[in-house]
Amino acid sequence: MAQPSLHPFPYDAFQQRAIEVIERDTSLFVAAPTGSGKTVLADYVIERALQRRQRVIYTAPIKALSNQKFRDFTARHGEQVGILTGDVTINRRAPLVIMTTEIYRNTLLEDIERLSSYAWIIFDEVHYLDDLERGTVWEESLLFTPPHINLLALSATVPNVRDIAEWIRRVHQRPVEVIEETRRSVPLTYVFQCHNQILESVQELKRTGYAGQAEAPRWRHRHDRRHLAPANRLDRLIRDLAERRRLPAILFTFGRRRAEELAWELSGFSLLAEQERAALKEMFHGLCAQFGLSHDRTASAVGQLIDRGIAYHHAGMLPTVKEVIERCFATRLIKIIVTTETFALGVNMPARSVILDTLKKRADHGFAVLSQRSFLQMAGRAGRRGMDEEGSVYLRINPQHVSYPEVVRLLQAAPEPVHSRFNTTYATLLNLYRRHRRSLLDIFPKTLYYFQTSGSKRQAGLEAMERKLDLLEALGYITRDGLTAKGEFGSWMYGYELLLTELHDRGAFNGLDALRLGLLMAAVVYEPRPRMLPPKSHRIIHELEALCRQPMATIHKQEARFRIAPRTKEPAFHLTRALEAWMSQAPFERLTKLCEVDEGEIVRYFRMAVQLLRQLSESPAADEALKAAAEKAFRRINRDVVDAEAQLRLG
User: Fold this and answer.
1) How many CB atoms lie within 10 A of CB 363?
2) What does DSSP say about strands 188-194 and 197-199: parallel, antiparallel, or unpaired?
3) Per the structure, how many domains does the chain have?
4) pLDDT at position 345, please?
5) Domain-ending residue, one of 147, 180, 213
6) So what's the pLDDT on residue 386?
7) Claim to verify: residue 22 and residue 61 sit in the same structural domain
8) Can you tell me the distance from the alpha carbon of 640 to that of 347, in angstroms, rounded to the nearest whole number?
9) d(CA 89, CA 103)
10) For residues 356 and 341, what is the distance between their CA atoms, to the nearest angstrom?
């Protein structure tokens, strides 16, 4: 039976089938190409739940997507929407709450009763199960979701979605439907720039770009000019896009500096009609004023490009600057945005075309061709339903960097299957141990890891959990009777539980003022880039390093004893001078002179420190003096551009 539409367009067949399942209050996994309209189903679940006075949770893999969804849903549902992301808490008891997956998982472990009144949870981008660092959070979130909450899991195309659904059926003993869609409502056309020519097919690419060769020539000596391909010029590419009316476009590249360089290389073009230029300038400057960026250096630089219909966007920029650019791009007045790969993840930015600057990116050992899923995620941003008849994907090809078979494989191969990355954190084990003691190991056969493996791999996975429990026992976090005081403290400190608990247990926090506590938390969360120089000598750094030396030695000794890898990260004090200045009310623009870290990264790590300070201030196991110092440090750091909640409220 056809359901009434909540949208100004008829539903596709796969959307209609999904809605029929939702109407039966049955859990559902949907796998479909990027840009095919999966979000419509989230909208439907939310609207239906609110009409029935039910509560619903929406989880997203990154905070930028959580924030965007909060703004979108608030525009439609007003005060019925809340958000919890660790550094933002707004209207937490609303019937619709947007959460990061980490916050949802933590709630499942700490206080599952808080979820008793929820009817649905939406897992957006559930293929994040395969993420090396965070996949285990997604797996635990699915595994521990109580049976009264229905699941809507939305995924990019993955070949084993039915296996994942079958895992949930077995674990939860609940019906789970699967709907797979391979067709995009807006078809994609692939175009190649090679030898500075625009080529319309893979056959033409092989014939012209590779001169009939199946394999690319080996790397030539840089002085051997005879075999060098003519460079792919941006002006040639942009003229083609403009002449064919294929703008606006997203140009994906794989480095922050490269993104800026390409944007400035494009600055010789003027891609706007006079009326568009006036409208875009007014919007850009109005948003800059709204977000307090009228005198910001980066915003001023981007403003020069905005005047030409061009912008860049990457993680090294202030979150507020990125948001201004995103809002401008959403109007389609920015004609080309040069950005890094994270822009492809879920953030709804309409573009007629996508350009891939290269098909290779830096990997652990040199450079590697993009994964199929990553390629499809970026390519899928081309073409939007109701806006474009087709999407165009331009691939910039250098035959001396990528072979013809590699290009063809990227275009034709199936995306990689999703594999479990199960690697339970100490905090998860502590929270489970509180309820189940050693019988928590009975949970292991219910994991996706167990479902997908057999024999020695299963045994190794179980033994890894056992060794972590043995370490927790050796360090005095657990006994046969349950959690010790150390264990109770550690159960609250997700991701940083061992170092923070050891410091707390040794009384290292005693006497730390708000400044030193804030600096220590920033060092705990900060991860320096490879080959980054150590921070300059600083009195407080020596003091805090000395505080951490013995606890870290104890942790690493026990991790070696129980063969646990990777070992706990040591604190890194590269942000100490910048944060000390910030906590002393210095203006933000001074901070980049005090560390070798981009503006956006500074804000990101300051916000992570804020999140850790909030955990300390709210921990039931922390003493009142520590809570008070954490609260004071929290307030001193969480101001102006660092205050994510204020940024969201501004929007």
Assistant:
1) 11
2) antiparallel
3) 3
4) 65
5) 180
6) 75
7) yes
8) 24
9) 11
10) 10
Which tokens hold the place of 328? 């401008």
Q: Residues 176, 46: one domain?
A: yes
Specify the DSSP class assigned to residue 181.
-
User: Which residues contact residue 643 at a Cβ distance below 8 angstroms, ignoring those fewer than 6 apart?
Assistant: none
d(C-alpha 605, C-alpha 607), whole Å:
5
The answer to the question of residue 326 being in a domain is yes
Cβ neighbours of residue 475 under 8 Å, at least 6 residues apart? 486, 498, 502, 554, 555, 558
Alpha carbons within 13 A on the beta-carbon side of 300: 4
Contact 322, 316 (CB under 8 A): no
Cα-atom radius of gyration of the chain, to the nearest Å? 26
SS (H, E, C) 618-633: HCCCCCHHHHHHHHHH
Structural domain of 582: 492-650
Predicted local distance difference test score (pLDDT) of residue 348: 66
Closest by CA to 46, choosing from 7, 17, 13, 87, is 7
Please report the DSSP string for 443-462 in residue order. GGGGSHHHHH--HHHHHHHH
User: How much is the pLDDT for 3?
Assistant: 53
The tokens describing 7, both together, are: 């949208």
Cα–Cα distance, 303 to 145 (Å, whole number): 46
Phi, psi angles (nearest 5°) of residue 185: -65, -30
Structure tokens at 244: 């064919």
How many residues in the chain?
651
Give 64's Cβ-side CA count (13 Å radius). Answer: 22
| Block mean pLDDT (10 aa), the chain, length 651 | 62 93 96 86 95 95 85 92 90 94 92 92 92 92 95 92 96 95 89 95 92 51 49 93 95 94 93 95 95 90 94 93 92 94 69 95 84 90 85 95 94 92 94 94 96 96 96 97 95 92 95 96 94 88 96 97 94 97 95 93 96 93 94 96 87 66
Regarding whether 397 and 497 lie in a shared domain, the answer is no
Same domain, 212 and 76: no
Q: What's the pLDDT score for residue 503?
A: 96
83's tokens: 């958000």
**Which residues, 6 or more positions from 229, have their beta carbon under 8 angstroms from its beta carbon?**
194, 195, 398, 399, 400
Between CA 126 and CA 129 the distance in angstroms is 6
